[in-house]
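INTERNAL AUDIT FORM
Audit reference: QA-55
Scope: verify that the stored structure record matches its stored sequence.
Auditor: D.O.
Record contents follow.
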Amino acid sequence: MSVINQMLKELDQRRAEESGIAMTPYQPATPWFRSKSLWSGLVIGGALVGTAFAVLLMPKLTISWEPTQPAVSTAVEPTKAKSSSLKTMLNEAGEAEAATAHQNEQETDVSVTAQVEPIQSKPVSLEVADSKPEPEPKSQEEAVEVVAIAEPAKQKQTQTIAAVVTAKPTFQLTEVKLTPEQRASKSLASARQWKQQGELEKASEEYSKSLLLQPHQHQVRNELAALLFGIADTRRAMEVLQEGLLQFPEQKQFGILQARILQQNEQPSQALQRLVSLNLKATESHTKGLILMSELAQTAQNHDVAAYSFDALTQLQPSVAKWWIGKGYALDSQGQSQPALSAYKSALLATELSADARQYLLNRINQLGG
């Protein structure tokens, strides 16, 4: 029978396919209380009613201030539903703050604002109470802190930028006192620089400053006198040298330079007198003065001074023939034949003697009986 039934079912299926009629099995009707659309509608409607109820019971905000905390914070009472916007919460927080300030008159008077300077040392975050109902806090210490401030990373960057912008350079002035020696050296360097540039007046001023600070600079005094003589200021040049002689009498070079200035100004007699007053000796430092004095004395036919000068020069430079000849001539002119003969003979033994000078010596030695 099962085979026959199977064959009949297949026959019916083929007929249905040919005729385009689908074979649908029989399904009994579903009861109303099992309808999915009905229950979905009920759930959605209940949710809408709950949302409307939650909006009507919007939470109130309260503000609390703890003086020991470094950051400004606001406390929010737990609510049964989420607030519509942060702006509304902050407005209500301002109203609650005014009510709380009357109760805390003896506490520190602090102005609470929603804006916090970006230089706060500790980062805080914004926290909003969950919409789930919670028991009211027993005291203000258990209130949830709500702090409006930038994120920590942005705060750190803001602090860094602010530090760079607001940093002001500091300058420290240190007074350095130069010693007289340092000031004199500085003036001397300036004087020589001005002299090199051709600014002789400015150079003379700096030379004078240097000498005023350090009068024992003998070479500097000589340079200043020569500079003043070069700009035709003979009076000042003589005064500078005279000051040196008064302060340092052993420095005969200042008097020698005075004599040379007088000679250049065509005052040979004054120059010779100046040299004689120096009482020059047969020392190396007086050599130039002795040479100048011998020339001036010989020109002036002052044989006594000439003999003295040449005699000192023969002691300093005995190999120079002209010193011996000058000494012999000065003594011979005074009628001192024997000392003059001795000087002539010494001249023959000296070096660098010209042929004419040798012939003159030989003739004069023969005349004196030598």
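Auditor finding: record pair retrieved intact. Residues 21-26, 60-84, 104-154, 161-165 have pLDDT under 50 and may be disordered.
Action required: none
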